[in-house]
Each structure stands twice: as structure tokens, then as C-alpha cells.
Write a structure and sequence with these properties.
single chain; alpha/beta; Rossmann fold; 2 domains; six-stranded mixed sheet; three-stranded antiparallel sheet; 33% helix; elongated
Length: 295
């Protein structure tokens, strides 16, 4: 599929960035303000000079008043690493249009924000071990955005994933940063265990739960043969008003359990319909929750 952001989305994205905790450990110089005080020209407070400190940051006026040498301290801007974890299971290719399309478009928008704001970006397509899938890719700099679009458009979808092990793998292979998981969570398993491997302040985790409009409000009546998109199992159902009511109750209970697991493990959770438009609904929703913020 050819992936392209609408022009209206670019106008919004150029005024936004991904919100991150000030306590994340940055890797290099960038645009992010940090909570740690370091010698800097951007003055916030003082500390006493220690041999070996850079004398460029000595506050000579304050030192003269107190007959001791003081260093200016400030917030040294740094860059963060944004990890986009994309569920590539077969269920993400379900629906008309498939959930995959909206997911990749949202991933492109989030990737654009990371690159435009000088963060490092790593895109990790999640797939079952042993299945041929796309290897993770790294990007840095806004000029790499066309390469990101090309990479996302070539990700294959199929099979199943195990989110718990995928999150643990991300924690094992990386030192920290922002993790944004894009998934329908249909095979979440013990999601809480995976989230526990990504504790703050090293990690800042957001779970974007993407469901198709027909999953949120199915318009079905009568007898149907259902096919599991990932296991191919066939089951016959008689869709009655009572069955639909039970489905909605199960959906709410399931979502509440996922949200509770996220809250207990310091991750931010939100539900997104893949029927929403990126510029008119998805981006404003993420901004309202504080996942995105104005620059």
C-alpha cells in the first residue's frame, strides 16, 4: 500500500510534538528539556565549583559576592528515543478498510513528530518468533521521513504475536525512552507482565488500542459462521439482541482490565477507532489526553 499523510495533518503536526517525561534519560543534544541540573548557560540555580568543571559556566559575579566559586546550572536539552511498536498480527489486517491502514497512518504521523523534533526513532514491527517479518529500523532527522513512509508501507501482516514477550524483548534490547504500542490487543495475554519490564523513569509507555468500528459496534443479526483471523478456527453463532448485549458487556470488561493493567504499571492507555480520521479525530484526541503537546 502507498502511505501518504494528508496535507491537513502536516499543518497540525508542525505545531505538535510527542509529550515525554522530563525524567527520561536523553542520549545527546536535542530539543527536550530535562529535569536533571547540569552546568549550563541556561541559568536555573548554582552549585559550588568542583575541580575539573568547565569554567565557561562559572558565575563570576555570584562567586565574587560569596568569596567562593559557583557554577551556573540549567536544564541541558537532550534528545529522546521514540520506539514505535506495531502489531503485525493477522487480526490487524481485518476489516474494510483494514485496521492496518489506520494504524500505519498513525504510526507515520507519530514518526514524523519524532523526526521533526530531533528525537531518535526506532520502528519495531511485532511478529511471532520464527515468522518472516520486517526487522526493526532506525531513523534520525526529518529528511528521513520519506524512508520511514517506505518502510511502513512494506510491513507484512499475518500470524499471531505475543505482546508480553515482545515488550520484554524491547526492554532487554534498549536502554529506555518512549514506547508507543499500536495494537488491537486481541492476543494481549499477560500484558501486565510485559509492562512491568518497562518501569519509569527509564521508560515512558503509551498503549494505543486500535479497534475497527465493527468491533466496537457490530451490526449483525441472524446466524453466522465466524472465522478467527489468526487461528482460522470456525465457529457458528446465532446473533440475537441478547448475544449483542453480552458482547458489549464483554468488550467493556475486557477494555477495563487492559486499562487497569496499564494504570497499575504506569502506562497511559487510550482507545482509538480505526474509523476515525487522522487529522480531525485521532490527533485532536491524542492532544486532548496530553500524549501530544504543542511545541
Amino acid at each position: 500500500m502507498k502511505l501518504e499523510l494528508p496535507s491537513t495533518a502536516y499543518r497540525q503536526l508542525n505545531r505538535l510534538r510527542i509529550h515525554t517525561s522530563r525524567h527520561l534519560r536523553g542520549r545527546g543534544m536535542g530539543q527536550r528539556a530535562g529535569a536533571r541540573r547540569r552546568p549550563a548557560a541556561d541559568f536555573r540555580d548554582h552549585r559550588k565549583y568542583v575541580p575539573g568543571d568547565d569554567i565557561r559556566f562559572v558565575d563570576w559575579k555570584a562567586s565574587a559576592r560569596h568569596e567562593q566559586i559557583f557554577l551556573k546550572q540549567g536544564e541541558q536539552p537532550h534528545e529522546n528515543t521514540v520506539h514505535l511498536l506495531i502489531d503485525t498480527s493477522a487480526s490487524m489486517a481485518w476489516g474494510q478498510p483494514p485496521k492496518r491502514d489506520a494504524t500505519l497512518l498513525l504510526a507515520a504521523a507519530l514518526g514524523y513528530l519524532a523526526l521533526a523534533n530531533e528525537d531518535r526513532l526506532q520502528v519495531i514491527p511485532l511478529h511471532t518468533a520464527g515468522r518472516d517479518g520486517t526487522a526493526p529500523a532506525r531513523f534520525k532527522g526529518k529528511a528521513r521521513f520519506p524512508a520511514l513512509l517506505n518502510f511502513l508501507s512494506q510491513i507484512p501482516f499475518g500470524g499471531r504475536i505475543e505482546l508480553n514477550s515482545s515488550l520484554r524483548e524491547a526492554a532487554k534490547n534498549h536502554r529506555g525512552g518512549v514506547i508507543i504500542l499500536l495494537s488491537d490487543l486481541l492476543d494481549a495475554g499477560n500484558l501486565a507482565a510485559g509492562l512491568r519490564a518497562l518501569p519509569p523513569p527509564a521508560w515512558d509507555v503509551t498503549v494505543l488500542h486500535l479497534l475497527h468500528p465493527h468491533e466496537l459496534a457490530p451490526d449483525l443479526h441472524g446466524e453466522f459462521e465466524m472465522v478467527d483471523a489468526e487461528s482460522s478456527a470456525h465457529t457458528n453463532y446465532d446473533i440475537t439482541p441478547q448475544a449483542l448485549a453480552a458482547y458489549h458487556q464483554h468488550l467493556q470488561t475486557w477494555r477495563a482490565a487492559i486499562e487497569l493493567a496499564c494504570i497499575q504499571n504506569h502506562a497511559l492507555y487510550t482507545l482509538l477507532s480505526t474509523g476515525w480520521q487522522l487529522d480531525r479525530e485521532m490527533l485532536p484526541h491524542l492532544q486532548k489526553l496530553g500524549i501530544l503537546e504543542r511545541t
